[in-house]
Amino acid sequence: MSSNVSSDLIWAITRNNSSYIVKRGPVKDQIIFTREPLSLTNQHTRKHSGLVNEKAVGVQAGENGNVVLITKKNAEKHGDKPASLYNKTTFRKYKSNRKIYSAIANAVAKNVYRANRFIGRCCPC
Question: Residue limits of the Ribosomal eL28/Mak16 domain (predicted)?
């Protein structure tokens, strides 16, 4: 993604033409999901799209039971180098779930990746 291309333009292009789109249900009540690696909620909206937003976070299951945190770097510096656009941090399966959660929340909060969604939310109370 180049820094001189608007995120609105990218969304307008990929909104209806993306290989990540998954449509479920009958045509009149159809729900659209996405399989983007950087979409935490799997909703096909501009707000949750990892392709469009400059900062995006993804959490995936790695091999051997590990957890992989993927964060997107600044597109202005790394836009012409797609291989270096993402940071991947692997958490071993031997760590407790609480330690993995707090490490992910701290990493997300330090880089201001949608901080209000992660900090202080361990349960839907």
Answer: 9-114
- What is 31-88 written as a DSSP string? EEEE--TT-SS-B-STTT-TTTSSS-EEEEE-GGG-EEEEEE--HHHHTT-GGGSEEE
39: number of Cβ within 10 Å: 22
Using the predicted structure, report yes or no on whether residue 81 has a pLDDT greater than 80.
no
The mean predicted confidence, pLDDT, of the chain is: 80
Q: Give percent of the chain above pLDDT 90.
A: 7
Please name the amino acid found at residue 78.
Answer: H
| Residue 103, helix vs strand vs coil | helix
Instruction: Give CA–CA dist 99/59, Å, rounded.
Output: 15
Answer whether residue 73 shows pLDDT above 80.
Answer: no
- The residues with which 88 forms a beta bridge, in sequence order, are 70
Entry field: residues in the chain: 125
Please give the Cα distance from 100 to 94 (Å, whole number).
Answer: 10
